[in-house]
Design goal:
Layout lengths: L1 E2 L11 H13 L5 H7 L3 E6 L8 E5 L4 H10 L2 E5 L4 H13 L4 E5 L16 E8 L3 E5 L7 E5 H9 L10 E5 L11 H13 L7 H11 L3 H4 L3 H14 L8 H14 L3 H30 L2 H26 L2
Antiparallel strand pairs: 1-6, 2-3, 4-9, 5-6, 5-9, 6-7, 7-8
């Protein structure tokens, strides 16, 4: 058996920040999960209802692996990414860092993992691998999935090789700190501004605050849109609150990031942004509860209420990001 020593599996919420935390702590940089999420400019919004989709998708963060690339660029980290279509090479790319005493990040489809509690396809899932033997691999996943977990090498290979939305070709990655690391505290304001700018200047109406406004128009019709409302609406609500989002579609993580920032930087704009995202987090949780209730009861009035709140959320988040963009 090969195991990287000293790996700490913390019970964090979001898969990509969980894996990043493992890799960076091993390199000597220990940051909170909200700080990793914020420094990676991770917050976003997308409303997507494409052709052939069984039900609309609400997303609250940037696309998979963009957070990792943002964080590495902002902190001057060495991000080494490998992809391949060869199963043999894919295993070698994952095992080599572990053999050298370093954990490695893997992007995969969680559907195939033995320990995963909800068997749904999601090709943007990220884990940290820190050990293996001839049968199993040792991974760190979110606290919700068990933290330090094991899955068979065969299941890992299937998860990494899966093709479909948001998947990557057996992607593995390692992170290294520069000889003279940048001050991460000095990168907070640029990270906040970049996130705000992207949110406000989203190129299509499905994204950013305009996407939230669109959701406010579409969600009231979800009972008719759903193939099975009693299944689809509670499932959508569950993903918003518990699908690795940290609660309130990632707004809790961003609220906590801004709270941490206000303790480090004396700035009225940061305090205003934090106050508005604290308000937004409460309202997003209310929206998810109304969506779940509508699915369980068939009461369209719950979705009308959710639509009204989403219109308010579009305004609140736009106001917050306009303040944060001016930092």
């Amino acid at each position: 058996m090969t195991i990287v020593k000293g790996v700490e599996a913390r019970g964090t919420h979001h898969c990509e920040t969980t894996a990043l935390g493992v890799l960076l702590r091993h390199e000597g940089l220990d940051l909170s999960e909200p700080m990793l999420f914020g420094l990676g400019s991770g917050l976003s919004f997308v409303y997507w209802d494409g052709r052939g989709m069984a039900f609309p998708f609400l997303g609250g963060r940037v696309k998979p692996f963009e957070l990792t690339r943002n964080l590495a660029a902002r902190l001057g980290l060495t991000l080494t990414v490998r992809e391949t279509s060869s199963p043999r090479k894919a295993w070698e790319n994952a095992a080599a860092p572990v053999d050298a005493g370093r954990p490695v990040g893997l992007q995969l489809d969680c559907h195939h993992l033995d320990y995963f509690r909800s068997k749904v396809h999601f090709g943007g899932h990220v884990v940290a691998m820190y050990g293996y033997d001839e049968h199993d691999v040792h991974l760190v996943d979110t606290g919700q999935q068990g933290g330090a977990v094991r899955t068979s090498r065969a299941s890992l290979a299937a998860a990494r090789a899966e093709r479909g939305p948001m998947t990557a070709r057996n992607r593995s990655f390692t992170i290294g700190l520069p000889a003279h690391p940048l001050s991460w505290q000095d990168r907070i304001i640029p990270a906040v501004r970049a996130c705000a700018e992207a949110f406000l200047a989203a190129p299509i109406a499905n994204l950013g605050h305009r996407g939230i406004e669109k959701a406010g128009r579409q969600v009231p019709g979800w009972l008719l849109r759903a193939g099975d409302p009693q299944r689809d609406l509670p499932q959508a609500a569950l993903l918003m609150e518990h699908g690795g989002t940290g609660g309130a579609l990632f707004r809790v993580l961003y609220r906590d990031f801004l709270a941490e920032c206000t303790r480090l930087i004396d700035d009225d704009g940061l305090r205003t942004g934090h106050r508005l995202y604290a308000e937004a987090a409460v309202l997003w949780t209310e929206v998810s509860a109304l969506i779940a209730k509508a699915g369980e009861s068939g009461d369209a009035g719950c979705l009308e209420q959710a639509g009204v709140i989403l219109h308010d959320l579009s305004r609140i988040e736009k106001d917050a990001m306009q303040v944060l963009r001016r930092l």
